[in-house]
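Most newcomers find our protein records easier to grasp once they have seen one. Each record describes a single protein and holds just a pair of labelled lines. A learned vocabulary of local backbone shapes supplies the integers on the structure line. Nothing more is needed to start thinking about how sequence determines fold. The record below serves as our worked example for the rest of this section.
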Amino acid sequence: MSVPSAAQGTLPPETGASPLRQLKLLLSPRAQGFRNLLIRGEQRRLYIGLGVIGFLFWLGIFISVYFLVGKFLDIEGFGPFLARKLMEMLLASLFVMLTFSNIITALSTFYLSDDLELVLSLPISRPTFHYARFLDTLTQSSWMMALFGVPVFLAYGIRSDAGPGFYAALLFAVPALLMLATNIGITVSTLLVNVFPARRTRELMVLLAMMMLAGLFVLLRTLRPERLVNAQEFENAAAYIAQLSVPAPALFPPRWASEIISSTLLYSPFPYTEAALLLTGLLASTAIARWTTAWGFDNGWSRSQEARSARFYRSTVFDAVSSVLPRAWRPHFSKELRVFARDPAQWSQVFLLMGVCGVYLVSIHALPFEAFQGELLAFMKQAMSFLNLGMGGFVMAAIAARFNFAAVSREGRAFWLVRSGPVDPATMLRAKSVLGLVPMLIVGQVVTVGSGLMLEAPGWLLAIESLTTLFLGYAMSGLAVSLGALWPDFRADTAARAATGPAAVFFMVLALTLDFVVLALEIIGFYAGYRGLYGLAALVAAAVIALCVFIGTWPVARSARALWERGI
């Protein structure tokens, strides 16, 4: 008797094992792996540290929302409407981000996971496989709601003295919204891998990110949040309340969840229509996702085995560009340029960075400085120009996390070729750091110096901002490459995935702390110069330069030794 292939999905369930038991067995490896990572993993301390930082961040969100909701509720007449509008905007933003996150996660769990060959060879039914991967995708993508949503909902409930009905509504609406976003992500990822080559599908994620940001921006502009704090734009109180009461589109799932939660929060009549829409929408999306994977999984997974074409490997342009660098750096730099050029998921992000710079400069130009005059206007413009250093540092930290931190992880399973060759690890890391430093400095200088020019900042302030951006970018670039070498993820299928792990979050915390310290030191230096203490101002400037040079140099050498000591 012949045995059907696993790829056809016709194998019978394991004898004596129920579908629930099969589902449990499929999910147990990930649970055991996470348990072992916390107990014996080399990143255990990192996860514990991130847990502490995450709790503090969670607590900060809770306190902020508790204070904000309290201010809203203290506004007589308008408070409940403001609180309801804020809930609607929150759920809409989280739902859009969750949907995009689920598309990427479903693409990895359903079609690009390393264990698929083993799982598909097991005697399990296709529905069991689908729901196991559904739960896997849901778990991986729901951390955003847990981190950002739970403290907000708790702050709402505690500050509003909500009853048990509010928490019961949360237990119904929030999981339903999470599962609905997961079903949409699975459906879209299946359609994508059947229309485009699977490896190229990952390259489309940048385009989807732009679409998500554009959609979120349009959504927020449709809700017009700035009108909530300016009642004078309305003819009377009735018009103001009517504007606050305008809901999101009727067939938008976050609106259904918002109506359910807000009604129990404000002790309004329960919206049975929205509850029925949310429940039926969840069931319908689950069926559609299941039917879509039943139709397109085999073809999608087969196409995911296609290899990426080796483009640009014979071009001499990259060697010419690398010729200006030291001889030991040239092979590494040339190779990194080739990898960057042949991966649209990398170079297409240049357009996203340009868009970010454009939006930021337009926002700076639109600031209401007409409210100030005389010396106060000049002071406000100079202060805003100087504070742009903080925003420039934040943007550079995000770029470093995306490009520099993942530089070592991008070697993937071919790292053994680099490790077994006559390669100096410190030279390799410095070459990767220099390549990632270029986009950081371009964006950082545009944000800081460009906004300073728009604010008519004096030349001496622009020079200080430019030099600070240069040294701060050097420090963040070296720090990112160093931490990426200490905790590389050679199993990551994309650079984006390598740049979203716990070590990357740890880097962002350190980078933003460095940004804050540099900004604080320069404020002290400016104050010392204003008071005529030029010696102290020069000492502070030297301390900033020394700190940035040290952080950009010493960790590279230390992490290079650690990277080579870990073996192949």
Observations:
- Residues 349-565 form one domain.
